[in-house]
Design brief:
The structure is a single chain. This protein has 191 residues and is α/β, with parallel strands linked by helices. The chain contains six helices and five strands. It has helices spanning 13-27, 42-54, 70-83, 97-111, 132-150, 184-187; strands spanning 2-5, 32-35, 84-87, 115-119, 153-157. It has a five-stranded parallel beta sheet with strand order 1-5-4-2-3, with helices on both faces. Strand 4, helix 5 (132-150) and strand 5 (153-157) form a beta-alpha-beta unit. The longest helix has 19 residues, at 132-150. It is globular, with a radius of gyration of 18 Å.
Length: 191
């Protein structure tokens, strides 16, 4: 199953996706892998997972709610070491779709991953001499095929094109037809 999500920039696409996936993993016997190059360093990104799962701030007390305790942190690490995987290329390297598909295959067979999150689409390089639209179409087709063949869920966070302002200075809510590059983000995805 291939799901693509978009939304107004800096309005919580990543947080919503992470919260949804982490809750799904908590409530089911499944595992998830996150490829999130916009959220570096990985250790800091990992702390946001702690906050979403435990429900307390990682760094300090807020409005009478204690920060995450050492015991809670240890319990989270024990759980996360079995359920969550962070995917990142080596330092100085850029991720290509070929590299990412190989990592996904490796994680399915080595760890039994059920959900893959790609946040964000534009952080993976296309190779070859195809147009942007051809690259998008081919990659979405490959992602769909990969998800179906391996019975996994792939969630892609994709940025919209330049947003249109409406009355009151607000932005029009983007749809998958508004994702930068191609209407195929709507036409080829399941949800």
């Amino acid at each position: 199953h291939l799901v693509v999500g978009t939304g107004i920039p800096s309005h919580g696409k990543s947080n919503f996706t992470e919260f949804m996936v982490l809750n799904y993993v908590l409530e089911n016997d499944i595992k998830a892998s996150f490829f999130s190059p916009e959220h570096q360093p990985l250790e800091l990104h990992y702390s946001t997972f702690v906050q979403k799962v435990i429900g307390k701030n990682y760094f300090f007390e807020i409005e009478g709610t204690e920060r995450v305790s050492k015991i809670e942190l240890m319990q989270f690490h024990n759980w996360a070491n079995q359920k969550l995987y962070l995917t990142s290329p080596d330092a100085g390297e850029f991720a290509t779709w070929e590299w990412l598909f190989e990592k996904f295959k490796e994680q399915i067979y080595s760890f039994g991953i059920n959900i893959f999150v790609i946040d964000a689409w534009n952080k993976v390089e296309h190779t070859g001499n195809r147009s942007e639209r051809e690259n998008i179409s081919k990659t979405l087709s490959r992602l769909t095929q990969f998800a179906q063949q391996n019975n996994v869920l792939i969630i892609v966070v994709a940025h919209p094109t330049k947003m249109k302002r409406i009355e009151g200075g607000l932005y029009e809510q983007p749809t998958l037809y508004d994702v930068s590059g191609s209407a195929d983000f709507r036409n080829q995805t399941h949800d």
